[in-house]
Amino acid sequence: MTVETDLENILANMSDPQNGLPDEVFHFIRKVTPLINVDLLICCDGRALLAWREDEYDKGWHIPGGIVRFREAFHARIDAVALTEIGATVESEPLPCNLAQLRHHDRGHFISLLYRCSLTSEIDPVRFYPGQGKPVNGSLSWIEGVPHDFYPAQLFYKDWLEGRS
Fold first, then answer.
1. What is the C-alpha to C-alpha distance for residues 151 and 58, in angstroms, rounded to an integer?
2. Buried/exposed 119-131: b ≥16 CB within 10 Å, e otherwise
3. How far is CA 116 from the centre of its chain?
4. How far apart are CA 80 and CA 141, in angstroms?
5. Mean pLDDT of all residues belonging to the chain
6. HSE of 80, CA atoms in CB hemisphere, 13 A
7. For residue 159, what are the contacts with CB-CB under 8 A and spacing of at least 6?
8. φ/ψ of residue 58, rounded to 5
9. Which residues, 6 or more positions from 96, have their beta carbon under 8 angstroms from its beta carbon?
C-alpha cells in the first residue's frame, strides 16, 4: 500500500467532513496544517461571557469558539458555536475585530478570527457556573477582565478582555 492509497481509503470511509472529522483524522490534520477558528466576544456591562475548558492541553476560562469546517461560512460556524457552546443565538458583526495566530502550541497552529457578538436569545441559567467548587467543562460565567485561570492558549486576547482594544 502507498500513502496515496491509505489516504484514499480514509476519505472513502469518512462521513461528510462538514459534520466534523473522526478524532484520528482531526489530530493528524492539526499536526500538519493551520486551522481557522472563530471566537465569539460577547460582552455586557464591562464583562465578557467565558466558558470553562479543560482538556489534555490545559484548563481555564476561554472565549467560546470553534474550528471552521470544510466549506463552511464563518457566520455559519459562529451560529453553530453559539448554539453548542452557550446554548443561545447571537448576532455578529460582519467582519472580525481581531485576527491572531497561535503557532507554537501543542494543540497546533491556529488562525483565530474574533467576532464581536450580541445575544439574541436567553442563555439557560443551568449553564452558568454557580461560583462554588470546580467549574465543569462548558460552564459559563460573565467575567470582568482576564481571570487568573484564563486558558493560556488564548492569552493573545488579553487586551480585548481588559477593554484596551
1. 7
2. eeeebeeeeebee
3. 14
4. 19
5. 91
6. 15
7. 165
8. 180, -170
9. 38, 74, 113, 114, 115
3-class DSSP assignment, residue 152: helix
**C-alpha to C-alpha distance for 3 and 13, rounded to whole angstroms:** 15
Would you place residue 1 in the very low, low, confident or very high pLDDT band (cuts 50, 70, 90)? Answer: low
In terms of Cα–Cα distance, which of 58, 55, 46, 44 is closest to 86? 44
For 57, the grid coordinates are 492541553
Give the count of alpha carbons within 13 A of 103, CB side only: 2
For residue 35 the three cell numbers come to 486551522
Amino acid identity at 134: K
The 3-class SS string of 53-105 reads EECCCCEEEECCEEECCCCCCHHHHHHHHHHHHHCCCEEECCCCCEEEEEEEE
CA torsion sign, 125 to 128 to 130 to 133? positive
Residue that has been written with the C-alpha cell 472580525 in this structure: 96
Q: Which amino acid is at 91?
A: E
Whole-prediction pTM value? 0.89
- As a residue count, the chain comes to 165
Cβ atoms of residues 118 and 78 within 8 Å: no
